[in-house]
Amino acid sequence: MSGAEASTSGAGAWLELSVEADVEAVEAVSEILGRAAPGGTSVEPAFELVDEGLSARLDPSRPAIVRGYLPARDRAAADRAVAEVARALGHLQAFGLRPIGELQTRLVHEADWAEAWKAYFPVMRIGRRLVIRPTWRRHRGSPGDVVLALDPGMAFGTGLHPTTRLCLAAVESLADRGVVDGARVLDVGCGSGILAIAAVKLGAASAFGVDTDPIAIEATAANARRNAVFRRVRARDGSLPSGERGFDVVLANLIAGLLVPLAPALHGELRPGGTLVASGIFVDREPDVRAAFEAAGLSVTDRSEEGDWVALEAVRGT
How far apart are the first and last CA of the chain? Predict the structure, then answer.
């Protein structure tokens, strides 16, 4: 572990924990960092910049970097959390199943945050039309591009993670089939608002997001303003049930451990005949999610896969 000597005193500071992990170990490492990181975790797949630095190409042969953030106001508490994460990672490394790097730490002041993380997010094309453009990068658009200007800050959802890409591609597919046109969309666990904003830009009448992290609600509102869809994208702190009338489309980029118990609630958010897109499903958990959906009255109609991640499309019966 390096960076442990960094001072963790003072308000407005976060301790960044980062670990390189093979793609198949990412979920386990994310879970370990997430226990100690109320500031959130992120996964950054390895990529190389192309097109004069304006776009990126993923490199699945190289390890991803998992990052987590915890408040640094209390030095003793931060040190205890780092030690616990290091112990848990040590146990995981001892199995020797997939390569996992050493825990790295560094102090990040909130005043420096806006610049500190920008290097990790390139312009990225998803599917045929969607382009994710971080607000600090340039992009030479092509005819028909649907560009999402994104400033994720500390909220999850940048387009880099396979689960987000799968969800975005599914939304584009729904739009191609006319399912999104004029639809009311619910984004469960909205994060940066990327899915809600994409749905509206692809033709949805409105999108409503819920997230248990207040930072995510702020990020969704700010990104909706940046994309000139503020009047059509709303978000509030909370979870399901949303308290809204039935939606035409529900987007849930979560994890299998949440999708399974939430299956009845997701069914309840859909109008009869409505469509659910669920992502964040590790391939080994797909049977569990399918079974929970079927038991809740959701018929799985399609699936997509990237690496070890799966997204499912399901429809509520009429």
Answer: 55
